């Protein structure tokens, strides 16, 4: 029975054999190829189909007995190289006959591989079960041939048949040899068993050692990792320590810098404190001096106070004296008369001199106030006045006598000064003067301001000036900027004070303003007249100075007026010469001057009615011509004989005025009394002078005292201020010293704190460094190094302990080699025996021919034809795996060569020797003999031998590779070289 696995029935196509279709399988798939099968033998188409996957074959209905089973394999799946290694086991009747078969590895792709003559017993159930079990990949099979096996004959059983390990030749051994051999075999097997067990033990030990080594390696790796971590940590710690040291350095530098700065600040503070202490000591000395000088100061203060009291007394006395002086002065004035008349004569003018005029005035007794006028050549008329000025007397002398009167206006008296006389006699000159020779007006105001300034501490003076002109009985305001059409009239105020409403009162505060005002008035007077001198001589020019005085000490206030009047010319014109306007002017002038005389007469007679209102002039002068007022008349005369008449007229008028003052009664007083009176007057005058001098001295003394007092007061104030300043400085210095001391203590405390903090920081840093260096650099490193060293020692020990079994293994190998050599020796003996056997074979050729049909095994396809064989054998030349369990085989002739390959026997032997030599050179040659030994056991033992303890997987991994190489010495590269593969059992 020949089944074409995976294919359909084939009948007589490739050979004379009929192949059954694939019908006995269980499971699996079909695979087919059109690729030609190389060396396919008689039936190449058989290998173009195959069953693969997980499957089995079950043949039933067979007669009980032994059967031969041939299995045909071909790798048709991996046609052009392996897509996956296909390893599988084959079991028949639960007995494994092939283990881990790799078809490709044996023959390559698209080449047949045959397993022939597998003897399978069939029991009564008549079933043959062939199982294909994949180890790696899926099993595959192309064909299965089952044929009846011949019964084993008894005589054939008798002789022992040995299969040569090298040439696979069957050798008949005699019973004695067999027994000896069995003994050897038993012995060797025992030894091998021992060696195997030893090997197992060693390999176990090696495995354990390897495992421990790997564990140690792992531990070592872990330790290395830990060491790396520790090193990394150490590096990071070192970096941190570096940073910390850097920070510490910075801190220490900062500390040093701060320390220096603090020390510098402290030294500065100490220096400051020293300086302050010095200052304080100086101040203390000064304070002591001040305190010492205080009694002097007190003395001075007391003295000053006494001076002040004295000054106050003096002031009182002074005021009393002033009052007395005023009283006396007034008495003197009264004795002099309220109206005083001074006579002034001008010098001859150039024209008068040129015209030959002569002087008719006699000034011999001018000092006594007498003036003589030569009325004729021998007659002389004497006039007596209060003062007579010669032409040589200047403005200053004139004013000097007038000034006491003038200054009385500041004491609250109304004063009136006017110049009377013929035109051209010097009225204007006396009153106004010129820039070089200032007149009474200017000098009066100058004096007033001077005295006001002197009295400014006791009096406040307001001085106002008005300038008027009375012309033709009309008042004209010379200071008015816009002359009003309204007629100016004299009015009487409620207090009886006369004034001109609407008149300009120009306040003057200094002499310059006065001069400006006077100039303005003078200029205004000139307006409206072609001939200034002419006009001025026809009008009265009146300067009114109003003084408002307030006594600061007693609050008394007065208002007084000083009239300074430049009267119109007093010359009398002949009636025939005067006409029109001139007449009117003359009439007005005469009227006014007459009115003035009348008023004075009325005042002298103390008349109840004083005709002030008869003219504007007297009306205006009403306040200044009253009983309490003072008046002064300058009677101006010319010295020329041409003006004799007018001069006499003027002098008469003046004398009348003066006489009026004195009163006619007095006039009538006799000369004796007059002399007495004169003497008394002289006495009073002297007394008055003495009083004045003493007053002046008192005033000076008072002023000196006041000045001294002021100086002392100032000194006292200065000393007090200095004392206060010194005290305040002392206090501030003491405070600053306290503050600086406090700051010093605070700073020193801060410094101490800083130093302590720095010391603790340094200690901490040192401790840290010490810890770090000690613990991390020494302890951990040393410990780790120790651990590493211990581990290395352990490793070395392990390696040493591992080397011991290796050495043992080597020894074993050496022993094994020796055993192999002895085996070779045995083989040589076997060869000799074979040679003998051949001779015997030659002799018994005839006998071998008789048994050829049953015992002949397939050789090469060509040789196979020459031998008789079973129906299932093929004449093609596939690669054949011959089962060694076919016991009844022909033992002689070329057919006895089990291998179907074309190589002759000697060639096989040569190869075997070569392989043995190679094996001897190989380090892992232990596997080969094992395999060889295993091949000699029954097929059922094959799988058992190959069974490996899963626990030894690690060791097995390497060994398996080696074993695979040895089992399949023909690698895929050298397949071409060795096409014949032999599997023996
Ligand atoms: P009146 O005003 O009375 O008409 P003035 O004052 O105009 O007279 O004087 C007429 C002239 O006489 C002026 O030129 C003046 O300078 C001159 N004169 C008047 N008095 C004196 C004097 N005492 N000394 C020198 N010259 C005088
Ligand atoms: Mg004049």
Topology summary:
Blueprint: E1 2-4, E2 10-11, E3 18-19, E4 25-32, E5 49-59, E6 65-74, E7 87-92, E8 95-101, H1 103-107, E9 112-122, E10 128-136, E11 140-141, E12 143-148, H2 154-157, E13 160-163, E14 170-173, H3 175-336, E15 339-345, H4 350-354, E16 361-362, E17 370-374, E18 380-384, E19 387-389, H5 395-407, E20 415-421, H6 427-431, H7 440-454, E21 459-471, E22 474-477, E23 491-492, E24 498-499, E25 506-508, H8 511-526, H9 532-537, E26 540-551, E27 557-566, H10 580-604, H11 616-620, E28 630-637, H12 644-662, H13 664-667, H14 671-843, H15 845-850, H16 852-855, H17 861-866, E29 879-882, H18 905-921, H19 927-936, H20 939-946, H21 953-967
Parallel strand pairs: 9-29, 15-19, 15-28, 20-27, 20-28
Antiparallel strand pairs: 1-12, 2-3, 4-5, 5-10, 5-11, 6-9, 6-12, 7-8, 7-10, 13-14, 16-17, 17-18, 21-22, 21-25, 21-26, 23-24, 26-27
Helix pairs in contact: 3-14, 5-7, 7-8, 10-12
Adenosine-5'-diphosphate (ADP) is lined by residues 346-347, 349, 391, 421, 423-429, 537, 569, 636.
């Amino acid at each position: 029975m020949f089944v074409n696995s995976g294919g359909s029935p084939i009948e007589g196509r490739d050979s004379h054999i009929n192949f059954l279709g694939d019908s006995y399988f269980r499971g699996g798939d079909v695979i087919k190829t059109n690729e030609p099968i190389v060396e396919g033998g008689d039936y190449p188409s058989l290998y173009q189909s195959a069953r693969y996957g997980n499957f089995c074959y079950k043949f039933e209905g067979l007669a009980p007995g032994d059967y031969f089973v041939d299995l045909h394999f071909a790798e048709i799946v991996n046609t052009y190289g392996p897509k996956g290694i296909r390893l599988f086991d084959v079991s028949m009747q639960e007995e494994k006959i092939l283990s881990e078969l790799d078809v490709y590895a044996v023959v390559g792709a698209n080449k047949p591989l045959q397993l022939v003559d597998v003897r399978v017993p069939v029991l009564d159930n008549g079933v043959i079960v062939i199982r294909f079990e994949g180890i790696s990949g899926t099993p595959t099979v192309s064909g299965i041939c089952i044929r009846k096996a011949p019964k084993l004959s008894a005589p054939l059983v008798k002789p022992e048949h040995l299969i040569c390990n090298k040439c696979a030749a069957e050798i008949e051994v005699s019973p004695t040899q067999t027994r000896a051999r069995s003994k050897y075999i038993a012995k060797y097997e025992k030894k091998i068993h021992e060696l195997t067990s030893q090997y197992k033990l060693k390999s176990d030990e090696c495995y354990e050692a390897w495992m421990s080594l790997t564990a140690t390696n792992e531990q070592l790796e872990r330790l290395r990792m830990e060491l790396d971590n520790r090193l990394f940590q150490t590096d990071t710690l070192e970096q941190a320590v570096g940073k910390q040291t850097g920070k510490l350095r910075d801190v220490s530098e900062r500390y040093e810098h701060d320390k220096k700065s603090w020390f510098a600040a402290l030294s500065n503070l100490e220096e400051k404190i020293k300086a302050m202490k010095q200052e304080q000591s100086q101040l203390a000395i000064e304070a002591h001096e001040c305190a010492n000088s205080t009694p002097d100061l007190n003395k001075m203060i007391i003295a000053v106070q006494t001076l002040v009291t004295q000054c106050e007394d003096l002031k009182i006395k002074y005021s009393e004296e002033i009052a007395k002086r005023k009283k006396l002065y007034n008495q003197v004035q009264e004795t002099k008369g309220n109206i005083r008349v001074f006579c002034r004569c001008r010098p001859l003018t150039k024209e008068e001199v040129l015209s030959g005029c002569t002087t008719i005035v006699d000034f011999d007794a001018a000092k006594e106030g007498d003036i003589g006028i030569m009325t004729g050549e021998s007659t002389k008329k004497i006039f007596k006045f209060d003062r007579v000025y010669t032409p040589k007397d200047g403005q200053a002398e004139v004013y000097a006598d007038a000034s006491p009167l003038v200054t009385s206006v500041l004491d609250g008296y109304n004063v009136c000064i006017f110049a009377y006389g013929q035109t051209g006699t010097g009225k204007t000159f006396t009153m106004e003067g010129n820039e070089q020779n200032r007149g009474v007006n200017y000098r009066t105001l100058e004096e007033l301001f001077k005295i006001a300034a002197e009295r400014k501490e006791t009096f406040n003076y307001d001085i106002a000036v008005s300038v008027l002109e009375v012309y033709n009985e009309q008042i004209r305001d010379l200071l008015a900027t816009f002359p009003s059409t309204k007629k100016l009239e004299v009015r009487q105020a409620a207090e009886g004070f006369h004034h001109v409403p609407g008149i300009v009162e120009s306040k003057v505060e200094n002499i310059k303003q006065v001069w400006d005002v006077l100039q303005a008035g003078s200029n205004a007077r000139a307006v409206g007249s072609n001939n200034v001198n002419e006009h001025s001589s026809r009008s009265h020019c009146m300067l009114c100075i109003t003084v408002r005085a307030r006594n600061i000490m007693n609050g008394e206030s007065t208002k007084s007026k000083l009239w300074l009047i430049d009267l119109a010319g007093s010359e009398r014109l002949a009636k025939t010469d005067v006409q029109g306007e001139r007449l009117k002017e003359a009439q007005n002038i005469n009227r006014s001057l007459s009115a003035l005389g009348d008023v004075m007469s009325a005042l002298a007679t103390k008349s109840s009615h004083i005709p002030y209102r008869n003219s504007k002039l007297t009306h205006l002068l009403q306040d200044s011509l009253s009983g309490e007022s003072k008046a002064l008349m300058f009677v101006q005369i010319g010295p020329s004989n041409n003006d004799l008449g007018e001069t006499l007229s003027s002098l008469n008028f003046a004398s009348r005025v003066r006489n009026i003052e004195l009163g006619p009664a007095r006039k009538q007083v006799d000369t004796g009394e007059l002399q007495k009176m004169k003497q008394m007057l002289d006495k009073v005058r002297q007394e008055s002078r003495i009083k004045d001098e003493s007053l002046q001295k008192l005033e000076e003394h008072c002023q000196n005292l006041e000045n001294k007092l002021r100086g002392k007061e100032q000194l006292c104030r200065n000393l007090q201020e200095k004392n206060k300043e010194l005290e305040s400085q002392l206090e501030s210095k003491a405070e600053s010293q306290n503050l600086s001391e406090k700051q010093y203590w605070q700073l020193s405390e801060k410094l101490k704190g800083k130093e302590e903090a720095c010391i603790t920081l340094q200690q901490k840093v040192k401790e840290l460094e010490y810890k770090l260096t000690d613990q991390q650099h020494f302890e951990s490193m040393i410990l780790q190094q120790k651990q590493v060293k211990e581990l290395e020692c352990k490793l070395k020990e392990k390696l040493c302990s591992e080397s011991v079994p290796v050495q043992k293994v080597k020894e074993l190998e050496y022993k094994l080699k020796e055993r192999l050599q002895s085996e070779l020796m045995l083989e040589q003996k076997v060869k000799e025996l074979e040679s003998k056997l051949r001779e015997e074979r030659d002799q018994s050729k005839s006998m071998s021919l008789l048994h050829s049909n049953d015992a002949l095994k397939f050789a090469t396809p060509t040789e196979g034809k020459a031998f008789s064989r079973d129906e299932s054998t093929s004449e093609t030349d596939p690669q054949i795996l011959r089962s060694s369990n076919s016991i009844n085989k022909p033992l002689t002739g070329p057919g006895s060569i089990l291998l179907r390959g074309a190589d002759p026997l000697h060639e096989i032997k040569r190869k075997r020797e070569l392989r043995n030599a190679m094996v001897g050179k190989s380090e892992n040659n232990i596997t080969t003999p094992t395999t060889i030994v295993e091949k000699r056991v029954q097929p059922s033992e094959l799988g058992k031998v190959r069974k490996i303890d899963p626990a030894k997987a690690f060791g097995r991994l390497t060994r398996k590779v080696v074993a695979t190489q040895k089992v399949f010495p023909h690698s895929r590269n050298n397949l071409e070289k060795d096409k014949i593969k032999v599997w023996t059992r």
